[in-house]
Amino acid sequence: MIEVRELTKRYGATTAVDGLSFTVRPGTVTGFLGPNGAGKSTMMRVLLGLDAATSGEALVNGGRYTELRRPMKTVGALLDAGAVHGGRRAFDHLGWMARGSGIPVRRVAEVLERVGLAGVARKRVGGFSLGMRQRLGIAAALLGDPEVLVFDEPVNGLDPDGVRWIRELVRALAAEGRTVLVSSHLMGEMELTADRLIIIGRGRLIADTSVRELADRFRRGVLVRTPRPADLTAVIAGAGGGVDVPAGGGLTVTGLEVDAIGDMAAAHGIPLYEVTPRSASLEEAYMELTSGDTEFAAENGGTR
Ligand SMILES: Nc1ncnc2c1ncn2[C@@H]1O[C@H](COP(=O)(O)OP(=O)(O)OP(=O)(O)O)[C@@H](O)[C@H]1O
Hints:
Layout (H helix, E strand, L loop, with lengths): L1 E10 L2 E11 L4 E5 L6 H8 L7 E6 L10 H4 E4 L11 H11 L5 H9 L15 H13 L5 E5 L7 H16 L3 E6 L2 H7 L2 E6 L2 E7 H7 L1 E7 L3 H10 L3 E3 L6 E4 L3 H10 L6 E6 L2 H9 L14
Parallel strand pairs: 3-7, 3-8, 5-6, 6-7
Antiparallel strand pairs: 1-2, 1-4, 8-9, 10-12, 10-13, 11-12
Helix pairs in contact: 3-4, 4-5
This protein binds adenosine-5'-triphosphate (ATP).
Adenosine-5'-triphosphate binds next to strand 2 and helix 1.
């Protein structure tokens, strides 16, 4: 479990994290989303004891990172995959980390196997592709078999195979009952990976929601197709619903749920060929939520 409580982090005049509070629970993948400069990396650095909070706190399994007795066995993190000495071999790099943390060296072979690097365990890291470095960073995070995992932008720069691999891995880690927090500035990726979303902008919480609730919140009515649109429009209007005629055909009903529309049509003997709830895409929802919170917003001719 990760608990962030009233966390604020200032760098001089810049407030990177501003009174942020949320909880990340085990058994789910939680996406940590926000535009560039929103404060995601800063929160993660404070959580991992790499930076001190100005006020408030970020706890892993109830304690501050710096107070954890066996940090690598409690929380594993992927922050910067480039940070490995290129002359080192993959196995030796992880072996060195394991020994420094009282983790049996046999664990190294296990994690290399899990991330698909067993075949290059004796190769120097300098020759690794970005995707391989990313896998090595994840192997390091998994070394202590931690309950909590924190990945900062793990899919950045990866090809589609690498992206899919990361997605499946984080889902598997959550299914094992671990707490998994994954940051990204791309909603498209989180939509496929996360169960819950923490969305921040300018260091503040914008939304703490399930992916499903967010889709519901940005519901755009119900698309209905019927061979008797005029009759259905009259029935819906009589029940206080709104009806629009969208460009693609059919009717868009607002103010009434799918079940109510179906029941009313049945009661009046009006056949329905389609009844589909419509949502804005999560990407649109995310853009709407974070507009005004981007650090380097493009000039848009004053539409806001
Ligand atoms: N060490 C630092 N010194 C001064 N300002 C910093 C420092 N680290 C971060 N900041 C500032 O704090 C704000 C939040 O940055 P942070 O890197 O946490 O955002 P982020 O959400 O991770 O963004 P990105 O997606 O671009 O990585 C930014 O305005 C950034 O310029």
